[in-house]
Amino acid sequence: MLDENGAIGRKLQVTTNRAVSKFTNTLASMKYLHALIAIILLTGCGTVSEHQSIAQSQNELQTASIGSTLLHVSKQGDLPNVFGGADIYGRKVDKGFTDVKLKGIRDGSVIELLVFDVNRESAENTLDRSLQNQNVSQTVNVDRNGEGVGIPVAINTKVEKEYVISGIKITFVEVRPSSVVYKIMDMKTVKDE
Questions:
Q1: Looking only at Cα atoms, what is the longest distance across the chain?
Q2: Regarding predicted confidence, which is higher, 51 or 35?
Q3: Full-prediction pTM beyond 0.70?
Q4: Could you tell me the CA-to-CA distances from 12 to 7, 9, 18, 191 in Å, in that order?
Q5: Which of 14, 20, 50, 114 is the most buried (most CB within 10 A)?
């Protein structure tokens, strides 16, 4: 028969072994939990991509008078998270815009356009957005004098009937004395189909 000290020692040893075993199991479970959370976070975030939306309808004949906007394209990109993937809430970053305006018509066939192409680059991510800390740079195409009034483009429709900018094709169907009839087509959409 064991004395009291021996019995107490064994009970203490068994209790200690059980506590160590529970602690080890808890640590192992936490490792799996952390790994599972990391996998969910990394696979739950898509790749960051850029998007553009065209204000005018596509593949339909449209008419624009001198001074009107032929094309307006808004550019956006997915807001990246701190891991480099797309924001899980679908938030976007402004990437700029493209505008094409009808400046004038000469000689019955030469279309004068004014083109604005603004590209913005941002190092902003979801953490910055949460902290309201944004770092944005901007590239703007301006005229020769640097006044920011756009780039003049002249298209002789007797020679060419298309103008492509930002992956969007403008096809001039008819030139009138003070207006044009044209059609817009997104070249990126055509490639994807």
A1: 120
A2: 51
A3: no
A4: 9, 5, 10, 74
A5: 114
